[in-house]
Amino acid sequence: MAKVSAVEKNKRRRKLLAQYASKRAALKAIVMDKSRPMEERFKAQLKLAALPRNSSKTRIRNRCEVTGRPRGYYRELGMSRIALRELGSRGLIPGLVKSSW
């Protein structure tokens, strides 16, 4: 089980991402547009840098929904390999059978 503080921190980051997503996308579009004047692009870059760090998409860590584990994460399932194996062994995941030989 992961630390509760780490899981909560990640939740706050997801909330900030949703809050600033449109503003961040608009500023990035201005920065990347080569047809705009250099001064305008530079001002947009400064505004982008002034936004909260945790509102960036790269600051979010994929974590297991069951345990909060950050490593060994399967995106399709939203859980870690250990939680997947545990639930599969109990028969709680349809179509998954743990093999043993």
TrEMBL record:
PANTHER family the UniProt entry points to: 30S RIBOSOMAL PROTEIN S14, SMALL RIBOSOMAL SUBUNIT PROTEIN US14M
Pfam families to which the protein is assigned, alphabetical: Ribosomal_S14 (PF00253)
HAMAP family xref list: Ribosomal_uS14_1
- The name of this protein is Small ribosomal subunit protein uS14
The domain of life is Bacteria
Function of the molecule:
Binds 16S rRNA, required for the assembly of 30S particles and may also be responsible for determining the conformation of the 16S rRNA at the A site.
Output the PROSITE patterns linked to this UniProt entry: RIBOSOMAL_S14
Family assignment? Belongs to the universal ribosomal protein uS14 family.
Gene for this protein?
Answer: rpsN
User: Could you tell me the keywords of this UniProt record?
Assistant: Ribonucleoprotein, Ribosomal protein, RNA-binding, rRNA-binding
